[in-house]
Amino acid sequence: MNLNATLFAQIVVFGILWWFTMKFVWPPITKALDERASKIADGLAAADKAKLELANANKSVQEQLAQSRDEIAQRLADAEKRAAAIVEEAKQRASQEAAKIVADAKAEADQQAIQAREALREQVAGLAVKGAEQILRREVSPEVHADLLSRLKSEL
């Protein structure tokens, strides 16, 4: 056996194997690797995009929460103002009603005082007439007149 022929035959067989591998085996492997690398790159890009979207969504949610808090605080302030206005309005109505009741009571008291004065005048006039009648029926004397006047005073 010749070592050079064996070595040359192995080189030829290796060359054929290399050519066969490069022609038929290597392209599907590189294609599969490229597809896998593309899928991985797409997945990483999608993950980055999803992270950005998540960050934007979180930022949007925080902004909406802050806006909602501000809106709720504004509504509470408006409600408190409205409640204070309602209370103030109720106080004004109550004071007006109280003033009206007091005015009505004063008017009624004044009217009753006038009626009492009129009744008292009528009684005094009646007593005066009665006293004068009694004086005129009796004889005219200072002692009797003084006695009648003292009884008249006690009746008043």
Automatic annotation (TrEMBL):
GO terms for molecular function: proton-transporting ATP synthase activity, rotational mechanism; proton-transporting ATPase activity, rotational mechanism. GO terms for cellular component: endomembrane system; plasma membrane; proton-transporting ATP synthase complex. Keywords: ATP synthesis, Cell membrane, CF(0), Coiled coil, Hydrogen ion transport, Ion transport, Membrane, Transmembrane, Transmembrane helix, Transport. Residues 47-122 form a coiled coil. It holds the Pfam family ATP-synt_B. PANTHER family: ATP SYNTHASE SUBUNIT B, ATP SYNTHASE SUBUNIT B', CHLOROPLASTIC. This is ATP synthase subunit b. It comes from Aquabacterium olei. The gene is atpF.
